[in-house]
């Protein structure tokens, strides 16, 4: 099936779920960023279900749920959901394994091999990408439509994030979980979740959500980047979009968050409410607004390092 609107049916942004794709290793982060850049730079992409009703551009949010890759297609302006599909990684295991093997052979070859040897390895690499692209398009047939080059680039991104599938599947079942909730999941709750993951890497599962959906806040990206935390992967989500319904701790960060949590039948070990400032309400120039965001960052960081310590120390047994 051909792309219905080739001029507009394309991805303009791709984000990775920081709650399920959690590595902070600089080399791995760099590899993911390159894969995302290449995919967004040139692609043809459309969800089948919406081709007749509307056309792009689209935003794609990628997550990992067990052994499946979540592909969440949204409106890039309003963040409204358009289509969501889960892709099993099992059929791609041998291709992913071969991808890394051939990639290492290629890197070794360009250092010292003869030109004909480099060409041989490169041909194998291209052949693998073609095979993977064909399988990817077949597995997504009737769900997501893309051309071969887009499928090749998407496979490269899958290879960059797939190691976390096993990590998430094999994570300790008693790893404590905390949910941060604010009004729009744009500023306070995503910052808190990111800081919690930074403070207790691989020791806590931190999620965030909003009472309603907001928009990406670039000031958040800027002040978190100052401390080495990449927030460009964050996409605002509402509580209605959460898969999990059981948490060891829920921390509310806005006045409307507690009643919204009350209205849901979550299994919760403990709840906290933190009175924190909303930096979006600060008037002033750019520097003054950034200072307000930094003040929130430090306030949240201090609270997380003191009030969440017992949660991490005692696992799911909160004291």
From TrEMBL:
Superkingdom of the source species: Bacteria
A family per Pfam: LMWPc
InterPro entries: Ptyr_pPase (IPR023485), Ptyr_pPase_sf (IPR036196), UCP032146 (IPR008321)
Keyword tags: Arsenical resistance
The protein's name: Phosphotyrosine protein phosphatase I domain-containing protein
UniProt xrefs under Gene3D superfamilies: 3.40.50.2300
Originating species: Maritalea porphyrae
Phosphotyrosine protein phosphatase I domain residues: 176-310
Organism taxonomic ancestry: Bacteria, Pseudomonadati, Pseudomonadota, Alphaproteobacteria, Hyphomicrobiales
